[in-house]
Design brief:
Strand content: 15-25%
Structural class: alpha/beta
Helix content: 25-40%
Number of strands: 12
Distance between the termini: 24 Å
Number of domains: 2
Radius of gyration: 21 Å
CATH class of the largest domain: Alpha Beta
Order of helices and strands: EHEEHEHEHHEHEHEHEEHEHEH
CATH architecture of the largest domain: 3-Layer(aba) Sandwich
Shape: globular
Length: 331
């Protein structure tokens, strides 16, 4: 039975992985993250299973290889935290979960918008203090607004169709437009500058690549439609955070809802309620009444977690049997 070391483990990870494996994998769960300093804790296993905040750089991978690790199984879609060329040089197999539940993340993006736009989070806090005043809670409808979807992969497509259900006008930008899908769903492709100028709401659904880093920045945020709302459930580094703060301070932005943050490592997924948070930029963001932040939980549904575990387990078992990986799961 193949032994797998799981890093950055949460209770929900363990529950779903054990259920999916049904006794076919011998697990070793660690709360700490994988990096060059912790790599030796994989000794005795053949596979390590990692998440978005683990760091498998070349030094880490070299230590894993010397410890006998022959596979790194990512239980996520993104892989910017893994040195892919180094893994190939060392003969370490890499797999990921390319699409666990586009509905989970897309629905979270819509939930963030509705919560922010209708000030539900503020109303919730008021009512708990028996304050039933409606002053300051005026919101706006999504109906007939212009929604800009940046990135029309699986998640972006689902988000677009949900917004079409509100009878909103949906613009889209993607370097590889899905024109047949757009025509069937009443979505209009345009270029990025036009989308930014015209949209009441901009929702980001792109991977983090060199060309998408700081896609929203100090140069184009000032060109947004006055009062526009930005939603980001993809990757924090898609947005230049200081430029975001400048847009909020100037009043150009009507609101911001983030499930990801540019420097979230070491903060998101952790309970820091009893500590002084040293990130001044995040602390400043949290002072704005029109900013809503969740802790990278867009994927956190029963359905998505079960699918992540199923694909991860299947990848590991294929490796154990010496079978080829499915093309979409291999790196």
């Amino acid at each position: 039975m193949i032994q797998t070391v799981v890093y950055d483990t949460r209770p929900y990870d363990r529950k779903h992985l054990e259920h999916a494996a049904a006794g076919r994998i011998r697990w070793r769960f660690h709360d700490h993250r994988l990096n060059a300093e912790t790599a030796l804790t994989a000794e005795g296993a053949q596979v390590v299973c990692v998440f978005v905040n683990d760091h498998a750089d070349r030094v880490c991978l070299e230590k894993l290889a010397r410890a006998g690790i022959r596979m790194v199984a990512l239980r996520c879609a993104g892989f910017n935290n893994v040195d892919v060329p180094a893994a190939k040089d060392l003969g370490i197999a890499l797999t990921r979960v390319p699409a666990y539940s586009p509905h989970a993340v897309a629905e979270h993006a819509v939930a963030l918008l509705l919560t922010l736009n209708r000030k539900i989070h503020r109303a919730f806090n008021r009512v708990r203090e028996f304050n039933f005043s409606l002053n300051g809670l005026e919101g706006a409808e999504v109906y007939r607004k212009t929604i800009g979807i940046v990135g029309t992969g699986r998640i972006g497509k689902v988000a677009a169709t949900i917004f079409r259900g509100f009878e909103a006008r949906v613009l889209a930008y993607d370097p590889q437009p899905a024109t047949d899908w757009a025509a069937a769903h009443g979505v209009q492709y345009t270029d990025l500058p036009e989308l930014l100028r015209s949209s009441d709401v901009i929702s980001l659904h792109l991977p983090l690549l060199p060309e998408t880093r700081h896609l929203l920045n100090k140069d184009n945020i000032p060109t947004l439609k006055p009062g526009a709302i930005i939603i980001n459930t993809s990757r924090g580094k898609l947005i230049e955070t200081q430029a975001l703060i400048d847009g909020l301070k100037s009043g150009r932005l009507g609101g911001v809802a983030l499930d990801v943050y540019e420097e979230e490592e070491g903060i998101f997924y952790e309970d820091l309620s009893g500590q002084v948070v040293l990130d001044d930029v995040l602390s400043r963001l949290l002072t704005f009444p029109n900013v809503l932040i969740t802790s990278h939980q867009g994927f956190l549904t029963h359905e998505a977690l079960a699918e992540i575990a199923r694909v991860t387990v299947e990848n590991i078992l294929r490796f154990e049997r010496g079978e080829e990986f499915l093309p979409e799961t291999t790196l």
